[in-house]
Structure formats: structure tokens, C-alpha cells
Amino acid sequence: MKYVVMIFRHVDRVWTAEDDAALGRLMQLERELAESGELVSSEGLRPPAEARIVQLRDGAQVVTDGPYGEAKEQLAGFFMIDAADDAHAQRIAGRVSAAAGDRVELRGTLISAGMPDEVR
């Protein structure tokens, strides 16, 4: 089954030497998961201030700066993994959390898990 492990970061946090160390740990974990065949992809994301909201309104594409949500934490990067089951995915998510030094969110993908009735 495929899962996304989402890494969050506080938007006001200044980059420090600990962040350099965390990045190194994440890159090492990325290599390990790639070697084991469990890594589908992973990426860090540019800061939220560089994001754009893109949507269609009355048939026209509208692009605005953003997001400007109330959340103090924003998505900073992700690992997409292929794990045998939820328990194994949770162990990998724990490794990502330890490497990042912060919380992560784990979600299974709809396609690999089968689309639940409440989503249809």
C-alpha cells in the first residue's frame, strides 16, 4: 500500500544548524528507503510565502498568492512510501519524524487502499 508521510514545519522558525543536521538525517533515510524499495518519491517544498492558489472561477483560471491560512505549521516536505501494511508504514513514519525532529502526518492513498464509500 502507498502512504504519504507529510513533514510539517513552524512557519516562523529560523533555519539553524539543527535543521542542517535534520536535513542530513532525512537524506540518509531517503537513501535507505530507496535501497529497500519502499521509497516511491520524496521532496522538500519551497516556503508557503512562495506558494500560489490556483482555481477556476466562472470558467476562468485565477491565481493568487498564498496560502495565508491561520496555521502556524505548514507542509514542508513529504515521503511517499510503499509499505506492506499500516503497522510498517507507522514505523517508517516514526523514522521520518525522528530524522526531521518534528511531527509528521501519515495518510494512505485512496487508490492503493481502495476508495471508501464515504469518499465516492
Task: Tell me what you see in this structure.
The structure is a single chain. The protein is of the alpha+beta class and 120 residues long. It has one domain: 2-Layer Sandwich (Alpha-Beta Plaits), CATH 3.30.70.1060. Helix content is 32%, strand content 35%. Strand 3 and strand 4 form a beta hairpin. The relative contact order is 0.31.
Secondary-structure-derived class:
alpha+beta
Count the beta strands. Answer: 6
- The CATH C-level class name: Alpha Beta
The amount of beta strand, in percent, is 35-45%
Corresponding CATH superfamily? Dimeric alpha+beta barrel
What CATH calls the topology is Alpha-Beta Plaits
N-to-C CA distance: 20 Å
Name the poorly predicted regions.
Answer: none
Number of domains: 1
Q: Which descriptors would you attach to this protein?
A:
120 residues, alpha+beta, Alpha-Beta Plaits, four-stranded antiparallel beta sheet, globular
Brief rundown of the structure:
This protein is an alpha+beta fold and 120 residues long.
Q: What's the structural blueprint in terms of helices and strands?
A:
Blueprint (H helix, E strand, L loop, with lengths): L1 E9 L6 H20 L2 E6 L7 E6 L2 E6 L7 E10 L3 H15 L3 E5 L1 H4 L7
Antiparallel strand pairs: 1-5, 1-6, 2-5, 3-4
Helix pairs in contact: 1-2
